[in-house]
Write a structure and sequence with these properties.
The structure holds two protein chains of two kinds. Chain A is globular and about 65 Å long. Chain A is mainly α. Chain A folds into two domains: 78 residues, no CATH class; 161 residues, no CATH class. In chain A, helix 10 crosses helix 11 and helix 12 packs across helix 13. Chain B is mainly alpha-helical. Chain B has two domains: 59 residues; 47 residues. The termini of chain B are far apart. Classes of the chains: A mainly alpha, B mainly alpha.
Chain lengths: 247, 123
């Protein structure tokens, strides 16, 4: 390639990268490619579409020297849909209304245990291995869906943008590993499987649960929604004394 | 489809308004989800259109997390400095949380005596 042509190309890239169109198109392309690869791998949990798409996008942005802010100007349109999608979770939830009502007390108890475990185990283990305070505070809400987790991180003194990343990683981990863990623990009930992954791995776990069955998905949506509520209420009270205790 | 999307946005908006009005720590969309759930229970379920739109939207729920995930590039330095505690905390905490929630829920919901196989599994 002549230097002149490559110079023109990079000018074209710089121009296009400044408009939201490129970030948006790249996001959709990366995701569709990731879904295709995931299907080729027979929906294997390791071929997680979020993991694949994020890796591809980070590589492209890094190779072209495009800042995240520039990318996000376009990608924010996708990010925006998280709001209506969260509202839409009420519909699969309603479809399981009967079973939800019968299981209300066990569900709430498991929720409380799971919610506290998610936050406390992350902070304690992180502390044990020498994470900084800012990282610990950003880790605490890692099991709840991004917009809630970022709000909590801000309240308790973490870094919201770091929390967003830790939330995504937690979601991917749960989506990738849950099947093996359930096989190990011999948990077959799709309601139980879904609810637990929804508590631990929010929307990404829920997306994975919907791939498995409608029922697992609905219970995951419930676990995710309830854990979002509970964590938002509990952490601003519980984390400051925990951090003081850890010194 | 347009009706359904408008409805979802209206519930989100109502949720955001309630969160702001009462200074709740809960995000608007989650309140919107609770409101929509109540509305569905009151009028006996969603319309076919709403159900279809929700299904389309939720089918690609993973996509909506991609932009936030790419934000990892803002934190490469911190990740490089603290990768060990971060990796261990995320791995261990995620799987402990799934195990605790699932085992407790199973123990609490198993009211039929289909459990004898379990005693054999314990060493």
């Amino acid at each position: 390639m002549s230097p002149r042509l490559s110079g023109n190309l990079s000018e074209v890239w710089v121009y296009l990268a400044a408009s939201p169109l490129l970030g948006l198109t790249l996001t959709l392309l990366a995701y569709q490619g990731a879904v295709l690869v995931s299907k080729r791998c027979g929906g294997h949990p390791l071929a997680n579409p979020v993991l694949l798409a994020v890796t591809a996008l980070v590589t492209v942005l890094w190779a072209t020297g495009t800042p995240y802010r520039t990318y996000f100007d376009g990608a924010q349109f996708v990010h925006f849909l998280l709001g209506p999608a969260t509202v839409a979770l009420a519909i699969p939830l309603y479809a399981q209304f009967g079973r939800l009502r019968r299981m209300a007390v066990p569900l709430l108890l498991a929720l409380l245990a799971g919610s506290l475990t998610a936050a406390f185990s992350a902070v304690l283990i992180g502390h044990l291995f020498g994470a900084s305070d800012a990282t610990l505070l950003s880790l605490a809400p890692k099991s709840v869906t991004t917009p809630i987790a970022m709000g909590i991180a801000e309240r308790i003194g973490g870094l919201p943008s770091l929390t967003a990343v830790l939330v995504i990683l937690t979601g991917i981990l749960g989506a990738v590993g849950a099947r093996s863990l359930y096989a190990l623990l011999r948990i077959d009930d799709h309601a139980v499987r879904g609810f637990a992954i929804g508590i631990a791995s929010h929307g990404i776990g829920t997306a994975r649960a919907f791939q498995v069955s409608e029922q697992a998905g609905a219970f995951a949506a419930l676990g995710m929604g309830l854990n979002g509520l509970l964590t938002a209420v509990l952490l601003p009270w519980l984390i400051p004394p925990l951090m003081r205790w850890l010194g | 489809m347009l009706n359904a999307i408008t409805l979802l946005l209206l519930f989100q908006l109502a949720g955001e308004a309630i969160a702001l009005l009462f200074a709740l720590p809960i995000p608007g969309p989650v309140i919107g989800m609770a409101l929509l759930f109540v509305a569905l229970a009151l009028r006996d379920g969603p319309s076919g259109e709403l159900r279809e739109t929700a299904q389309n939207l939720l089918q690609h729920l993973s996509l909506l997390f991609v932009p936030d995930g790419v934000g990892v590039m803002l934190h490469f330095q911190r990740m490089a400095d603290e990768w060990l505690p971060i990796v261990i905390a995320l791995f261990a905490s995620t799987f402990i949380t799934i195990a605790v929630s699932a085992l407790l829920l199973r123990a609490l919901t198993r009211h039929h005596p289909a459990a004898p196989a379990d005693t054999e599994r314990q060493p």
